């Protein structure tokens, strides 16, 4: 086989908590991550030498800084592969949006090259390698619904949420993840998500029971600096969405809808107000298979 196509899916954070700062300056996090069926399309074609990235999106670098390049290079060096690869990325996931689009591409690269280069590495090994490229890559490899701890690399799968419809809005701003973490001040007044109760609701397959406990601590930093995030949250709530939250370090905001009809209707309304509005379902490979 010398050719492979794949879809790489975005994620949202149903909860995001920061428990403290570690000695190595990384933050200790606790978050419930969820794959969604908003995806990029990737194509891998074997060649004799070198790694070449092709991408039409102006904000995505095609040089050695691309997450995909770094993932391919790591695998090539680690297993002394003397073949090359052309990698085409077609972006649908908004870039720098808090949806782990780049990490999903990195995860897809590890999976595709594992097959094309016949490495036969188990998922645990791919996750260990992925962690060296980006903290969200292990989750993107695992997919579904999971609790992430440590710097995001310690993962525990949770039962899949029944398929839920979401509306996502990305405001036209870019927020640096490093800036958000640097400006996060945690004290005894800080509100934290109730992760244990959210997990309980998920385990009972009861989204209505879980939703009240969904919370993203990073909104404490982003909302005062970018009032448009709060304005989008308010609009989604006015239109009937539930569990409305910013994903990751932002700026994308999502909300849960009752069904596809409600998601379509909220999406139509918000498209008149914002350029980047999407609908997507929560995604779990096992449920979809
Ligand atoms: P996270 O939720 O993991 O913080 P994100 O959704 O905020 O990620 P990405 O879309 O992954 O952010 O992009 C972050 C930055 O990484 C972008 O500014 C982009 O220039 C760079 N980048 C490198 N490789 C890629 C890639 N394959 N796809 C998208 N962005 C990439």
UniProtKB/TrEMBL annotation:
Domain GHMP kinase C-terminal: 214-275
Reactions mediated catalytically: 4-CDP-2-C-methyl-D-erythritol + ATP = 4-CDP-2-C-methyl-D-erythritol 2-phosphate + ADP + H(+)
Active site, per annotation: 11, 136
GHMP kinase N-terminal domain sequence ranges: 66-144
EC number of this enzyme: 2.7.1.148
InterPro entries on file: GHMP_kinase_C_dom (IPR013750), GHMP_kinase_C_sf (IPR036554), GHMP_kinase_N_dom (IPR006204), IspE (IPR004424), Ribosomal_Su5_D2-typ_SF (IPR020568), Ribsml_uS5_D2-typ_fold_subgr (IPR014721)
Keyword line: ATP-binding, Isoprene biosynthesis, Kinase, Nucleotide-binding, Transferase
Annotated residues for binding of ATP: 94-104
Biological or metabolic pathway of the protein: Isoprenoid biosynthesis; isopentenyl diphosphate biosynthesis via DXP pathway; isopentenyl diphosphate from 1-deoxy-D-xylulose 5-phosphate: step 3/6
Pfam family, one: GHMP_kinases_N
GO molecular function per UniProt: 4-(cytidine 5'-diphospho)-2-C-methyl-D-erythritol kinase activity; ATP binding
Coiled coil ranges: none
Swiss-Prot/TrEMBL GO biological process terms: isopentenyl diphosphate biosynthetic process, methylerythritol 4-phosphate pathway; terpenoid biosynthetic process
UniProt similarity note: Belongs to the GHMP kinase family. IspE subfamily.
Function: Catalyzes the phosphorylation of the position 2 hydroxy group of 4-diphosphocytidyl-2C-methyl-D-erythritol.
The protein's name: 4-diphosphocytidyl-2-C-methyl-D-erythritol kinase
Lineage, highest ranks first: Bacteria, Bacillati, Bacillota, Clostridia, Eubacteriales
Originating gene: ispE
């Amino acid at each position: 086989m010398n050719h492979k196509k794949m879809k790489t899916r975005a994620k949202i954070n149903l909860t995001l908590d920061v428990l403290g700062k570690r000695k190595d300056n990384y933050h200790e996090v606790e978050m419930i991550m969820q794959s969604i069926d908003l995806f990029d399309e990737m194509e891998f074609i074997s060649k004799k030498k070198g790694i070449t990235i092709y991408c039409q999106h102006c904000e995505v670098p095609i040089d050695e800084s691309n997450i995909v390049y770094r993932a391919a290079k790591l695998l090539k060096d680690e297993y002394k592969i003397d073949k090359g690869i052309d990698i085409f990325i077609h972006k649908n996931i908004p870039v720098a949006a808090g949806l782990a689009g780049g990490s999903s591409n990195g995860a897809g690269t590890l999976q595709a090259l594992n097959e094309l280069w016949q490495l036969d590495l188990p998922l645990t090994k791919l996750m260990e390698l992925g962690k060296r490229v980006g903290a969200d890559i292990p989750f993107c490899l695992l997919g579904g619904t999971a609790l992430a701890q440590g710097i995001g690399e310690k993962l525990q799968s949770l039962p899949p949420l029944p398929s839920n419809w979401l509306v996502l809005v990305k405001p036209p701003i870019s927020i640096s993840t490093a800036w958000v973490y640097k400006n996060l001040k945690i004290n005894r007044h800080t509100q934290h998500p109730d992760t244990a109760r959210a997990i309980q609701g998920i385990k009972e397959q009861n989204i209505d029971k879980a939703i009240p406990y969904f919370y993203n601590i990073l909104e404490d930093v982003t909302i005062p600096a970018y009032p448009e995030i709060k304005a989008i949250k308010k609009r989604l709530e006015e239109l009937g969405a539930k569990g409305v939250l910013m994903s990751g370090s932002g700026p994308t905001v999502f909300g849960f809808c009752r069904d596809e009809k409600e998601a379509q209707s909220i999406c139509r309304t918000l498209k008149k107000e914002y350029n980047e509005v999407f609908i997507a379902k929560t995604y779990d490979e096992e449920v979809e298979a």
